[in-house]
Design brief:
The chain is an alpha+beta fold. The protein is built from 3 helices and 15 strands. Strands 3, 4, 5, 6, 7, 8 and 9 form a 7-stranded mixed beta sheet that branches. The protein has a 5-stranded mixed beta sheet with strand order 1-10-14-15-2. The protein has 2 domains: 16-153, no CATH class; 161-238, no CATH class. The two termini are 21 Å apart. Helix content is 13%, strand content 26%.
């Protein structure tokens, strides 16, 4: 991330690819003509949590803070694999690792977002099996290890796992407000201040999909692909795991 100023309900505005890392088998992308999954009974779904701890390359440890990987517009991202490609939680995790290292799409055509770093040691995958059972597997050096579900979460844009930029809307802080307004102007954004004065001023941002309204204390996140979202202070500080 690039955080503009000091840091902490998501509103969205609006994914792109090989060599297999040593010691890890490759689960190939679906061949051309692979049928689209027909329902939850024959698919594994995988949600990736990026480890934000400075020492995450040493592996995941209880208490590490993680951030859910999302689409550029901030919406949840679940990788999907049919039972023809993955027949166990570990195989689903391996398939997700392949996608997360930009070696192809999942079985619905989703590619790993360009503005999130590749999946690596210390990140955690939540796998939901066709029978509804949930497994949490941490990426290790050459395999996966079963871990308890992470409890410490933060918003993706508050981490170095992404290049998405995050700005707090703090109209009472002239330096912080000026930095955001300057960025908006540099981007050619269409914005104004529909209500409030001083520290209560709101910020309205017009985007192709509609309008976003940021209230004092909320954060604006801008993806590399141009998507904007407004994130509450609580969600920015604590994440909002799906």
């Amino acid at each position: 991330m690039t955080t503009a100023v000091h840091r902490p309900h998501t509103v969205t505005a609006r994914i792109t690819t090989a060599h297999t890392p040593p010691g890890r088998s490759s689960t190939p992308p679906p061949a051309s003509g692979t049928p689209t999954p027909t329902g939850p009974s024959d698919t594994y779904t995988v949600t990736a949590y990026m480890n934000a701890a400075p020492d995450h390359f040493n592996g995941y440890h209880k208490g590490h803070t993680v951030a859910e990987a999302t689409h550029p517009d901030g919406s949840p991202m679940s990788l999907v694999f049919t039972t023809g490609r993955a027949r166990s939680a570990h195989q689903a995790a391996d398939a997700a690792f392949v996608v997360g290292n930009r070696q192809g799409p999942d079985d619905t055509g989703q590619y790993w977002p360009a503005d999130i770093r590749s999946l690596s040691k210390g990140d955690v995958l939540r796998i939901t099996a066709p029978d509804g059972a949930t497994h949490h597997l941490a990426i290790a050096s050459s395999d996966f290890s079963t871990v308890v579900p992470p409890t410490e979460h933060i918003h993706l844009a508050a981490t170095d796992a992404t290049s998405r930029r995050a700005f707090p809307w703090q109209p009472g802080d002239l330096a912080a407000a000026g930095q955001l307004i300057g960025y908006l102007m540099a981007q050619g954004a269409d914005f104004d201040h529909p209500t409030g004065t001083g520290g209560t001023t709101t910020l309205r941002l017009r985007i192709p999909d509609g309008v976003l309204l940021a209230r004092p204390g909320e954060w604006l996140v801008h993806s590399d692909s141009g998507d904007w979202q407004v994130v509450s202070a609580h969600t920015f500080a604590n994440g909002q795991p799906s």
